[in-house]
Amino acid sequence: MLYLGKYPSCKVHSRLLIAAFFTDYRKKAGEMMLRVILELFRIITIIFVIGMIMGLIIHSIYAIFGITVENTTGGWIVGLAIFPLLYVLYKNRLQFSGFYKNGKQVKLSTRTTTILVCFSVLMLTVAPLFR
């Protein structure tokens, strides 16, 4: 038992303060856990939906030039090239509109963004060579 003073009423107040703190803490922790789970579900949905749309666009562009990378190693390279683009999109735009709010959320640096986008474009350029 926590004792905050000489008088018995202080014992009661200290118990109420501790109980209120832990009740509020559990409520906030539960709410935070729900927000994290919802954000993870949102990230998975973004990967599948936007990833499929980007894949369709890239395969359509390849089809315009008469290049087929489906069912080849080049198709895998295209799939792997989409992930850095999705990461840059999420870290620079989508993380600020989600369920999980935190003061530590920051955008990627310009240098990191440039390196990841260039790496993805390089992989998309090289993918047709692996048929």
Summarize the structure.
The chain contains three helices and no strands. It is mainly alpha-helical and 131 residues long.
Percentage of residues in DSSP E strands: under 5%
Number of strands: 0
> Looking at the structure, what is the overall shape?
elongated
Low-confidence spans: none
Over all CA atoms, what is the radius of gyration? Answer: 25 Å
Structure explained in plain terms:
The chain has 3 helices and no strands. The radius of gyration is 25 Å and the shape is elongated. With 131 residues, the protein is mainly α. Helix 2 runs antiparallel to helix 3. The N and C termini lie far apart (72 Å).
Features:
131 residues, single chain, elongated, 0% strand, mainly alpha
